């Protein structure tokens, strides 16, 4: 999806900055910056906004060679307007977009795949996307990959009542489930998930950090206090940091710590994904000193 | 419709300037600036882009008090990218928009209406808009108003083959038909239109000016040569100038002259309608001297 | 008046953003956005800055059809420079401006007028404006309209000593008097005003909210704590919110609450009036969630 | 004077870039860039716009240590709007400005002065400025300096009929008179000026170059054809180039050539004076090749 | 290399837009956009400007996985200032940069390489780069790849006298030599090159198009006349177009035509490489019509 | 040195704003704005960036007539990127720059010099700059001027181990030594400096203010709490304020107070030196009210 972010108020005829948006692409970029090999499975229009999506992902080292460029549907748009410091208004131009035409055939998963990350946004887009998610989970299972799932309930796409019956079984089939407290409740709650066999359930607590629950109990880690430039994308940054540490074989405390650290970078920088840290940059958060421009 | 005009190339992640777009609103603004009382019949979403449309039209003195703000559909978007000096790429996000849900009920035409202006874009948007056009023509006839029709064939909305059977009968019912040579051919050609009872047929010749054909013969007037800042909207500017002179009771030569003059303003200024002249400014074209900032 | 707001420091050769300024137009826009029918009585030059004033007010739905466009005097300018986070420097280019030539003849007050709002700035501009104010009060009385008066003492236009003898009798003739503590003292103090027959006296307390005194006693309401983007216009926003609730027939507590709420919007947004809330937006202040872009 | 140049159309609420403006300061900067020692005699407000004037002139190496900073009057403003490619609208906020309060006491002329340059704008500003000009001419005569005079008739400040009786005697007392054909006619015409004892009369011919008439006859030099970025200031650039060559002791052909060359730089660059050439840069006009950034 | 392009005049304290620059990367991007698989051989600093180079090339689909990120030297900078419409000033901050430390070890050429493209800039940067070029030619010969060489004499890096003895033997070893008339003379002239065994010698004629000489004679093709936005990079665009057609197995006339067409895109767009055409866009040049935003 | 400050993240291809940078020029501008006569001793390239340095210093009233413009070396560059709110990345392009070629011959110190200010940056640039510093101290001693020395250890230029043996003897020869606690330790510590004959040692404590130690004891003054726009240059602002009060003959408490006040201005404004206060502006810090734009 291409995002258009209003610099002032929309009704006054402001300018818009463009970028790309999407919880999955945010996580993909976050993991790539942290040094992992990542492929994005998605669908864009065969148009210039679609080129922006692909150029950006390629720039960030995310593999997009299998992405379909749909000749028959435009790349979706999302408009953002910061109405008040803590009120961002969002408008989707996504119905009929290429992304909503994602299908099982778009799921190309081969070779040495260690992790499949899914979000609860994809199934909200229609039957095709829902089948693509099914296919991806099945394929991940065949390849022995870990499946992580971020609930990401988007109230503007579907109600909790509509989402719950779709997302709950999906969450139960995942190894790692991530969400806010409300979102985790929407898919049955932490305990039910663990009982259903989910390996770890991660609760995002916003500025208060995060917690992870496993059959062995809960661990909690506080967030970093940084000036808020733009909180959009902070959850995805956390997820990328958490999954990166997971892929590195680190324990729960280090996983939460890296997640919180990545989240702080996202919050302290304008843009959804632009401020995500590289592995070397993770250290800057504590540093606060004029390091080299490198 | 809200327009988003890329400042650079879309695939490179540029900024976009927003404004409003639409052949009918361009003509409405042009007539209002030239001193006429104008009402715009249309439909916008009950959203901030819709507010931009209404605020802009109100600012320009165009009456919008009867415009429906549709709670169930967003205001349409149009994206522009200047790929080469003479190649502008256009993408509509208009399907399912409020504008495409225009219906006969939106046509509020009362009181002292002297002119109804229609374009061939509206019927391209669906059955509702087509009925709205029908209703408007019928109502104009009841009120004794002149009906002008700008063919405005938009190839990205429908093919010539699809458009011809819809637009031709519409054109034949108008008093004034305006179009490029190709467009006039699409609705049967100048002669057939005159034969069918159209009072005057105006051919837009781009930089070469324009011509008007009546049963009495053809008159032609050359265009002004100005540096091209942005040719989008030039045709609508011409139409506004032409119709303004018509409303003032001027003859064909003066109608063409005012149309060409208004067109030159549009071409010489960035934006579709932003540079349209007020009545006082019409004189500036020849002047070229440092007039007062007023 | 047209405002030119320096983006950096003036002496360094910065850019300026333009908008319109004026306590009365701020209140007018605030009331219009809250759904009331408003007319602005003023005077602008027959120049492009004057067009900016009129276009903006029309865009905001404020009636300006009776505003005189003065051919013999320019629209006034006001320059702003943010020198320090809490020091804004102001320079008027207002002497000899159209606004300073306002006269009793410009006061067109007819029909169903429920409220006349005046400020202490107008009488500072000269004899003509002072007569216009006199005429407006007289006319409001004839029409049975409530008269509200915001003291708005501008030290850069006249000293407290010069202002007091002019503003005090004016305040005493009003039904509602609004001002900071200092300003209310300048016109005799809360008690004296009540004694003189003023129905309600409202004290603006900045970030601490506001209080209203009536013969029945005082009520106080705390302000909203929001990040400060630009405090210019906050007082006018409060006034608009207060008067809106008054027109809706609400009690003192609701009047103060809506005033404080509108003030918070103004403070949290760049621009004097740009961030003023619509009636629907009033609820956003507590919301803090990604609502639709509408 | 501080100039505010609209980036778009004023009525649409555009941004303004600030700089300094004034025929005399343009010539002063032009001469300084060409390597001459220059002092500017003027008056600014004791305000930030005044600081911008002084900072800019100092940056350009123009001596301003004797300039009065007027505590009682603001620095004048001039607004520019490019309405059409060849129509620039101008609005002065200059009445009552510090510059209009220039007086004979501001004229500090001492030491080794070789040239005094005057324009016909100063006497248009009032009695004080007129006396300042008188004083300057008298003082230049005492010091044995050449007096150059650019007619610079500004129709927005005074009519030709008002200007002629003031400017004609002034022109006759100068050694070098510069103007367009119309301006030279306003002060009596080339022949009358030569008869009155003027040493050389220079006619600016715009894009066609310039001509100089002396008792020995006329010489003419064609202008450079360059793309027009901004023609404001071209005449002052020409004057600076011409006077620079005069101070270097060059003949009429070289004087015209340097004037035309400097004029071409001004025309090809945005801004009134920003593009004026240094002595080394004069050669670039023919060069057209990627020289060093120096 | 990272380019910093002044938006105004450097001495006035302007802003700079950043991008990447380099004849080789321009050609690489051009070929990639035209659908070919391209690898860039170069060296950047392990700093953020270096990341900009790599991100941009990856975005454009150019393979950079073998590029060394030098921890001990910064990425080079190049500053541009447009002093006059046809005078661009250039300043390198390139001595000691990572790029100047390129060495034979950086040349990774394996697998199915059909073409190696070299420029005369690389050998100007020092002994290491010169050895890298030698190594690349040797390796290309082993792989049976065509070698193309663009003379690209940069007078700011070395004089013609210094360049000739280095570039001439290099040119003679190439299969395709490209340059302006002057550059081709610097390496011995068209005839000497053909005699030495060069298969085709291409003369870039700027706006006049280009010519190709082979042992069979000369063919010439005129350039496209387009408004000049920025002529930097036009030669590289031509080279990319020419080589693309060569790789497609097209004859000389089509090679020149595609080169000229690509050059026209570069000239008509701001930026060195930003406007290079995709294969589908090549057709737009003749089209001039509002195509889809895709 | 010319500074280029990234507006966003460098790797994303952002814009850069240019200005001048340098601890000595910051102090020079600070002293000039506070009303002192100041000369800057330095060296710039004979290029446009060098012109920016000279124009800026002249604009600020700093005397630069003796500054050498080096034809053989470019003006140095410094790039800044704000990576996180409190992490600014810095990259120098300074090796081989004109500034690093400063030599004793560039030190022109004559007439009535009351104070020589040096920093520990200059000796880090090479042997020539080190000799220039030696020469300056010797010359100051001959002229009876006070010598102040700001340790200014720049870890990116040299390590503490390398810097200590060079800076310690220099600090001991000064009358006033200024630095952070760490920096003062690097040159031997407060007590050792006082023992060595330094008259006063000033410790910069950042947001906590500053302290001055003399043989008579220590005084401390708290800093002002202002919103942080940009902390770069705050130390130099402090130094300028402190030295200004010293030149005015004020006591330690007033010296610290003016230093802290100047530092607060620097912190509260974007840019290294742009926000430095004039003498009149010093009072604004407490004021917080809309003063005149002057």
Keywords:
homohexamer; alpha/beta; 294 residues; 6-stranded mixed beta sheet; UDP-N-acetylmuramoyl-L-alanine:D-glutamate ligase
Describe what is shown at a glance.
With 294 residues, chain A is of the alpha/beta class.
SS element count, helices of chain A: 9
**CATH fold label of chain A:** UDP-N-acetylmuramoyl-L-alanine:D-glutamate ligase
Radius of gyration of CA atoms of chain A, rounded to a whole number: 18 Å
| Neighbour order of strands in the largest sheet of chain A | 7-8-9-10-11-12
Biggest protein-protein contact in the assembly: A-B, 28 and 28 residues
- What is the quaternary state of this protein? homohexamer
What do the pLDDT scores of chain A average to?
A: 94
H/E order of the elements of chain A?
Answer: EEHEHEEEEHEHEHHEEEHHH
Write down the CATH class of chain A: Alpha Beta
Q: Cα distance, first to last residue of chain A?
A: 30 Å
Structural class of chain A: alpha/beta
Strand content range of chain A: 15-25%
The CATH level-2 architecture of chain A is identified as 3-Layer(aba) Sandwich
**Uncertain segments of chain A:** none
Which word captures the global form of chain A? globular
| Total count of strands of chain A | 12
CATH superfamily of chain A: Ribokinase
Give the proportion of residues in helices of chain A: 25-40%
